[in-house]
Specification:
paz domain; Rossmann fold; 4 domains; eleven-stranded mixed beta sheet; seven-stranded antiparallel beta sheet; 23 helices; 45 strands; globular; Piwi domain-containing protein; PAZ_dom
């Protein structure tokens, strides 16, 4: 096909052919033993890197040529954790490393400089040449055999007594002014128009004391102490623009106001190109002063140990183009600043026992932490051959120590990789580095033909619907994928070029192209292979013919291409196709992906590691991957202690649980063991409203056996025996089975709901053959929004609902009772704050669009879910949800109406009385947003209260932020009382060592983590008008007890949960709101089918609201 310079490919092509002919219009001759590559009849010009509108890369000289390549993505050193037997024994497939004769990153371009010059400091010169390979994706150190607990040579150091003493001093000094602080916060009142008195000068509530209740225990924390004598750092910002110059025109900066006819223009620089430009800029800066100590995150920040003396600013850099080193790109790098970063001021603050005037703000000294994070991240970021950074704090090694496993069950070509997170944190009396094991999703790397082979991918016609669907799954991860393309230049030189994959070639994409003599796809082929795509090969200037890609390679080079789909490496308008055999995907490319069900299971299994394994990885592999012992930190005068920190914790006792006896309506008390219990011989504490009319239906794939009527009838009797108010005789459905296709596409599900509405059905049991997200979304939207019927989706598998499994029946029944307004269990000893029936507990959360295609996330709104208790037993939590501006965390004025509606509901269920106290758990905000919660959301909450309380005393408010997505972990230090799962004990609370004594926060692990490493919840008090006034010096103990025991009141479980139910329920409400909007949030391979029937909405735009029949219930559970 069109040659554009006659660059033949290198790839696995075998012997190659005799070389391309001197085709017209710039075809040129291909390489000798590479087969001439794109020596076709194209319009290419000498020296260009791509074929014209469908040009192809030719064969090459085999795997062992040009730097030994990288081989496949599956051969060599064994699985992701070699030697464990089974599929991980290194016998083949995807977990066998990256060995073979093509090991190493090599390639003829490796030592050329340009974008790939050097991998170390700024004087890295000409790079590393070819290298010898990266071992396997599953290599790495395995450490000693698994141990019950992590120790250092069998010993465990005690927590630092100096830190403990300083914590006590700080709290003691703050206690003296505690009464005044409470008074100040109590004076905060809402202005007439809903504004608030300025909170910017208000101080967050000081820690009243450290907690004392519970059994003391010493724990490891995943923190290292940072030692530094730094005084001042200098922070600069970097701007980079690329100057595009017309041919034969000198490059110069663009003048402001230049007319359209200018011969040059600038554009923003991003991604890896930006990395290499900044790398080159720092190299130039360092040449003038060899003593400079610099660090950058290769985006916009530059940190220096001394002030820079820039002879030239901006810098003009000329660098070989990334995808064509013969072409030079021109860049302009401008450095602004500096801003002084006072590290010594921060260190004085950390070690001072006296209150500070800036304690009203969190986080403290963010500019210092940011600068230090740049320094700590600089070392790993310079190792581009080894480390793949993701975001600002996560680093994944894809070299010897890297661990990765493919997630191929759904054929999407992604893999899970293990890496490390790091972040500088301020402690009490010490500066800390938080390090954790992390996991991410990456594109599978290696030769594309081998990837396709292992994924069983072949070119397929449109009529093969399943194959086309699978190809669409794979194709979603191809755009912007960095790859090596093997080719031969017109002079016979073998080269390896970096290009970005635009797409897997499709007929529908080609139809958007414009021009003469475009490639042709065989009729009815969407993802076509070499036999099904023809290109125009010019034989003379006036003549030519169409020839298939397969025939061209067979006849010209004696190469038989397999029927893999072709790759478009250019654009939709001007496609340039390459055979899969000559393209190799580079490793370490992260991808934002919503994992499918089986992928999620595989990911969880891969990420599930014991506390010992994680602690060992952090202290060994983690230090190496993050460069914590490298000289670059020493140059800044920074060192990191070798051992993890130990902290003091306490284990709180489990509360008792109350049900009703099986034989008579009398309370029966149950004592949890390891934070869980069972419901043997008990009934629910309080049944909900009578469920008179209910029915069921199976929604199954074709040729799947349904769950019989008798099993469902058995379920009705089971619920009655649990004490749930239900008519044991269900209403017989008009049909017991609906196929998935007819449910989604033919309106049969809408017909069924229409029947249910006519028959006054209150509850529907939906039995699914598999957890199909499209079917689930449709069921919930129809039930919750359109028809106002409670629905429960269950899995019909024999081991689950279909086999009459009592445990599964019980879990479903608990949800039915909650939906009906019942209470499944309560605490034996009522929470002191709640037992008077005067305290309402609220939880709310905001969820944002994530893991969505580029551009889509801005279209989808953020969703808010808010729940509030309505009873003294804290068993019922009706909800409200709404949309707000995409990616906006702080709530707007809708919060006023939401809180008012919850207060009205409380009043309805509590003798027309309003609560005296409101305890709010705000989920998911970061430290930098704490002040905004008080400045923006608190006034709205108070305005809602004013509207209902009028002249009556307003409620006392406490706001606690709950965070689950953080990186702090604790590991046991002793085998004494060690649970079977080898985690810390349930009920463990930590408020020392890794917290800041000036603020009121604590970590709580209420649950028993059966698998993996337990993740504690982190709670921070932003406002307190409830606990301190009531409990005085015991406020910290009482808040910890209140929060801990709340975790035993999650209504659909017989175990303590990891985050308190108000926050947990609010998160579930947000998830359900997403389910109601599949057209915005679900990434499907077919166009989402919009639910038929008029969903109740407000505000236009298809905003779905929960049906009024369900609005005041726990429909979401």
């Amino acid at each position: 096909m069109a040659d554009r310079g006659g660059r033949g490919g290198r790839g696995r092509g075998g012997r190659g052919g005799p070389g391309g002919p001197p085709d017209s219009r710039g075809g040129g001759r291909g390489g000798g033993r590479g087969g001439g590559g794109r020596g076709g009849a194209g319009r290419g010009t000498e020296g260009d890197t791509g074929g014209f509108r469908g040009g192809f890369s030719g064969p090459g000289r085999g795997d062992s040529d040009l730097g030994r390549g990288r081989g496949g993505f599956g051969r060599g050193r064994g699985g992701s954790e070699r030697g464990r037997g089974g599929s991980e024994r290194g016998r083949g497939g995807f977990d066998r490393g990256r060995g073979d004769s093509s090991r190493g990153r090599g390639g003829s371009d490796r030592g050329r400089g340009g974008y790939d010059r050097g991998r170390g400091g700024f004087d890295s010169g000409r790079g590393r040449g070819r290298g010898r390979g990266r071992g396997g994706g599953g290599g790495g150190s395995f450490g000693p055999p698994e141990q019950p607990v992590f120790t250092i040579d069998g010993a465990v150091p005690q927590p630092d007594s100096d830190v403990t003493n300083l914590e006590q001093q700080i709290v003691t000094q703050q206690t003296t002014s505690m009464s005044q602080l409470v008074s100040d916060m109590g004076k905060l009142r809402v202005k007439a128009k809903g504004g608030a008195t300025a909170l910017s000068q208000e101080q967050f509530p000081a820690r009243p004391a450290h907690g004392t209740r519970g059994t003391p225990v010493v724990l490891w924390a995943n923190y290292f102490r940072i030692l530094t004598k730094l005084s001042t750092l200098y922070k600069y910002t970097i701007d980079v623009t690329q100057i595009q110059v017309e041919e034969n025109q000198p490059a110069k900066p663009q003048e402001k106001g230049k007319s359209k006819g200018a011969k040059f223009q600038t554009k923003e620089v991003k991604g890896r190109k930006l990395y290499f430009v900044i790398h080159e800029a720092l190299t130039e800066i360092s040449k003038a002063d060899k003593s400079l100590v610099l660090a950058t995150e290769f985006k916009s920040q530059l940190i220096s140990l001394t002030k820079l003396k820039l002879e030239k600013n901006p810098l003009r850099l000329t660098i070989p183009a990334q995808n064509n080193p013969e072409k030079l790109d021109v860049f302009e790098v401008t450095i602004h600043g500096p801003a002084e970063v006072q590290v010594d001021d921060m260190m004085k603050y950390l070690t001072s026992p006296t209150p500070d005037s800036g304690d009203h703000a969190l986080p403290r000294y963010p500019e210092v932490a940011d600068a230090l994070n740049v320094i700590f991240g600089f070392g790993p970021r310079t190792r581009v051959d080894d480390i793949s950074p993701v975001g600002s704090s996560r680093f994944f090694s894809f070299k010897n120590g890297g661990i990765a496993t493919p997630l191929l069950s759904n054929g999407r070509g992604v893999q899970a990789a293990r890496g490390f997170f790091q972040s500088v944190r301020l402690g009490t009396g010490q500066l800390l580095l938080n390090v954790n094991v992390t996991h991410g999703i990456f594109k599978i790397s290696g030769k594309v033909d081998e990837i396709f082979e292992n994924l069983h991918v072949r070119a397929r016609p449109k009529t093969d619907h399943l194959a086309v669907r699978n190809l669409r799954l794979i194709s979603k991860f191809m755009p912007k994928t960095r790859a090596w393309v093997n080719m031969t230049l017109a002079n016979g030189k073998q080269v390896r070029r970096q290009k970005a994959i635009f797409s897997i070639a499709t007929a529908s994409e080609l139809r958007r192209s414009r021009g003469r003599n475009l490639p042709r796809f065989d009729r009815d082929w969407e993802f076509a292979g070499p036999r099904n795509v023809q290109f125009w090969m010019e034989t003379t200037k006036q003549d030519g013919r169409y020839v298939s890609v397969h025939d061209y390679y067979q006849q010209k080079y004696n190469i038989t291409l397999k029927d893999y789909p072709l790759l478009n490496m250019c654009s939709a308008d001007k496609p340039t196709y390459y055979p899969a055999e000559f393209v190799e995907i580079q490793p370490g490319q992260s991808v934002k992906a919503k994992l499918l069900a089986k992928e999620t299971t595989d990911m969880v299994n891969f990420a599930c590691r014991s506390p010992y394994a994680n602690a060992f990885s952090i202290t060994n592999d983690g230090r190496g991957a993050l460069g914590l012992d490298d000289g670059s930190l020493d140059q800044f005068g920074i060192s990191v202690e070798k051992h993890l920190l130990t902290v003091q914790g306490r284990v709180l006792p489990c509360p008792g649980i109350t049900y009703l006896e099986k034989s008579k309506p009398k309370p029966l008390h149950v004592r949890p063991m390891n934070a869980s219990w069972n419901m043997r011989d008990v009934k629910v504490f309080k049944p909900g409203a009578m469920i008179q009319r209910w029915s069921f239906v199976n929604i199954l794939p074709d040729r799947t056996s349904p769950v019989e009527y008798g099993v469902v009838d058995q379920f009705g009797k089971f619920m009655s025996n649990m004490g749930i108010n239900i008519n044991q005789t269900m209403v017989a459905p008009p049909t017991e089975v609906i196929t998935v296709n007819s449910a989604v596409y033919d309106g049969k599900l809408e017909d069924f709901f229409t029947w249910a509405k006519k028959e006054r059905i209150e509850f529907l049991l939906i039995i699914l053959g598999s957890m199909d997200s499209e079917v689930y979304s449709k069921v919930k939207t129809l039930g919750d929004c359109t028809f106002g019927i409670h629905t429960s989706c269950v899995q019909g598998h024999f081991k689950k609902f279909g086999g009459g499994n009592p445990g599964y029946f019980a879990n479903v029944a608990l949800k039915w009772n909650l939906k009906a307004g019942g209470i499944n269990h309560k605490l034996r000893d009522d929470l002191d704050l709640a037992k008077g029936g005067k305290t309402m507990v609220v939880g709310y959360d905001v969820t944002h669009p994530t893991n969505m295609p580029s551009g889509k996330s801005d279209e989808a709104p953020s969703l808010v879910g808010l729940v509030a208790s309505i009873d003294r037993d804290l068993g019922q939590w009706p909800s409200v949800s709404w949309e707000q501006t995409s990616k906006q965390e702080m709530l707007g004025h809708q919060l006023i109406e939401a809180v008012k509606s919850r207060l009205e509901l409380w009043k309805k269920y509590n003798n027309k009385q309003l609560p005296e106290n409101i305890v709010i758990f705000r989920d998911g905000v970061s430290e930098g947003q704490f002040g905004q919660v008080l400045e923006k959301e608190l006034p709205l909450i108070k305005e809602a209260c004013s509207a209902l309380y009028l002249a009556k005393p307003h409620p006392r408010l406490t706001i606690v932020v709950s965070v689950k997505r953080h990186q702090t972990r604790f590991y046991p230090t002793t085998e004494k009382n060690l649970p079977k799962h080898l985690n810390i004990e349930n009920g463990t609370v930590v408020d020392r060592g890794v917290t800041q004594a000036r603020y009121w926060d604590f970590f709580l692990t209420a649950h028993a983590a059966i698998k993996g490493t337990a993740r504690p919840a982190h709670y921070t008090v932003l406002l307190d008008e409830v606990f301190r006034p009531k409990y005085k010096g015991e406020a910290a103990n009482e808040l910890e007890k209140f929060t801990h025991e709340l975790c035993y009141l999650f209504g659909r479980a017989t175990k303590a949960v990891s985050i308190c139910p108000p926050a947990y329920y609010a998160d579930i409400v947000c998830t359900r709101a997403r389910v109601h909007r599949p057209e915005l949030f679900e990434i499907s391979d077919v166009e989402s089918v919009v639910t038929a029937g008029p969903a109740s909405s407000v505000g236009g735009g298809g905003v779905k609201q929960v049906h009024e029949n369900l609005r005041d219930s726990m429909y979401y559970i």
